[in-house]
Specification:
2 domains, about 55% helix, mainly alpha
């Protein structure tokens, strides 16, 4: 096995981005955004993954092999391939994970495929990727990573990878919005989570509202509310704050939806939490609600040890000084359970 220091791809990346000017390479052969833009819709629909220059990016050939297995008839093979792409993302290799996005979307959209929900959730994880652990504050809970420069372990500009992934979702937004009507509740939630970062604001907002009007599953409705609030945090919507208030203040609305609306309101508003919102949380934010909301990706992103994501969110949004517990000398120590 070739050591990474001796790998010609890593050497080329280091020479380009450690010793060279990053902007000089924008739009060039090492720009994953340009590589993504170069592949036609026809090639993506034909699953022609070989049209992309995998060999130019760290861990590219390995990820190409995983993409090649995504349409296997063996569910275990597909699952391992998805874990391979997920592993690259976990190692902060967003550039090569981004190249897989068009094909992950087509796996998710194919009703005959295996691990469809896993594939779409992986797309959502790539486009929603954030710098460091997610924090439960009113300023950060529903924020996407912005245009900050950051670099992968290989020295590749990781923000280019996130931009490429979001461009890929925008190009295939019709596939994503169609999955808002999928029979699987988890798929509908993942579609909402992925769509927020696509950039086509009007189209995404309209599709989310259309789905919300007919959605019967309270947990999926809660996810759609969080997605719409997140969209408003990124792209101001003057009506969204009042809309979330109407939801959390309505006692006929399911508790899980009221709680999501309250979280959204807290992230959209600068004002202190009113007594009526606190009363709604007191009634609705039960252990049962926390259990129901636990699978939502917004909650999974902030789930920490034995503390539920919902409880961390509420504590952080209402008491920001207590949002992140001070750890002891052990850097891996878990925070205390919320009481």
């Amino acid at each position: 096995m070739v050591r990474w220091e001796e790998d010609p791809v890593y050497q080329a990346i280091a020479q380009a981005f450690v010793s060279g000017d990053l902007e000089m390479h924008a739009g060039g052969p090492l720009d994953v955004r340009a590589a993504m833009a170069s592949i036609s819709q026809e090639a993506k629909d034909a699953f022609a993954y070989d049209h992309l220059p995998w060999e130019r990016f760290p861990r590219g050939p390995e990820t190409r092999g995983d993409v090649a297995n995504l349409r296997s008839g063996d569910a275990d093979v597909v699952r391992r391939a998805l874990r391979g792409v997920s592993g690259e993302l976990a190692n902060s290799a967003c550039s090569v994970a981004a190249l897989a996005v068009p094909f992950l979307l087509r796996v998710a959209a194919d009703p005959r495929g295996h691990c469809r929900v896993f594939a779409l959730e992986l797309v959502a994880d790539i486009v929603q990727w954030t710098l460091g652990p997610s924090r439960c504050t009113r300023e950060e809970l529903l924020r996407l990573s912005g245009g900050e420069w950051w670099f992968e372990p290989s020295a590749y500009p990781g923000h280019w990878g996130i931009e490429a992934a979001r461009d890929a979702v925008a190009a295939d937004l019709d596939l994503v919005t169609a999955l808002l009507d999928d029979p699987e509740p988890e798929m509908r939630v993942a579609a909402a989570y992925a769509g927020v970062a696509a950039g086509r604001i009007h189209d995404v907002r309209s599709a989310l509202h259309v789905r919300l009007r007919v959605e019967a599953d309270p947990v999926v409705r809660a996810g759609l509310v969080l997605a719409l609030a997140q969209l408003a945090c990124e792209h101001p919507d003057p009506e969204c704050r009042a809309w979330t208030e109407a939801l959390w203040s309505d006692p006929t609305t399911p508790p899980v939806v009221r709680v999501s609306a309250a979280l959204g309101w807290l992230c959209l508003a600068d004002a202190p939490a009113p007594e009526s919102l606190l009363a709604a949380l007191e009634v609705c934010a039960t252990e049962e609600t926390a259990r129901l909301m636990a699978p939502l990706p917004w909650m999974r992103a902030v789930d920490h040890g034995d503390d539920t994501g919902l409880h961390r969110c509420i504590r952080g949004l209402l008491h920001p000084d207590d949002a992140e517990p001070v750890l002891d000398e052990d850097p891996w120590a878990l925070p205390p359970i919320l009481t």
